[in-house]
Amino acid sequence: MSEVAKLTDNVNHPEHYQMAGGIEVIDVIESAIDPINDPREAMCLANVLKYCLRYRFKGGLESLKKARWYLDRMIAYMEKRDANFGNYQRKERIEK
Asked: Are 73 and 39 in contact (CB under 8 A)?
């Protein structure tokens, strides 16, 4: 395999973002954040999932600590947001 082919695989389908059965972490993240109306909440959740789902293949404990950092940030944001604006409504799920 050429160096260019290796680079392409690491960009498009890196091993540390592959789950059992060929499921890609990006697909899990997109599915999880799709019904979220709040972009900051979606961003935090996306990062929590990214770091949790890859920790065994890249980053180990450091990835879990990054996930915790984003989760703590998400909780603090949502507590402040909900205190100021109340609970928000999520988008309706659209079955595909």
From this structure: no
Helix 25-33 with 39-54: angle, nearest 10 deg: 150
For the record, the structure tokens of 32 come out as 């999880």
Tens-digit pLDDT profile for residues 38-64: 999 999 999 999 999 999 988 999 999
Cβ density class 56-76: b for 16+ within 10 Å, e for less: eeeeeeebeebbeebbeebee
CA distance 37 to 35: 6
Please name the residue ranges forming H helices in the chain.
3-12, 25-33, 39-54, 61-85
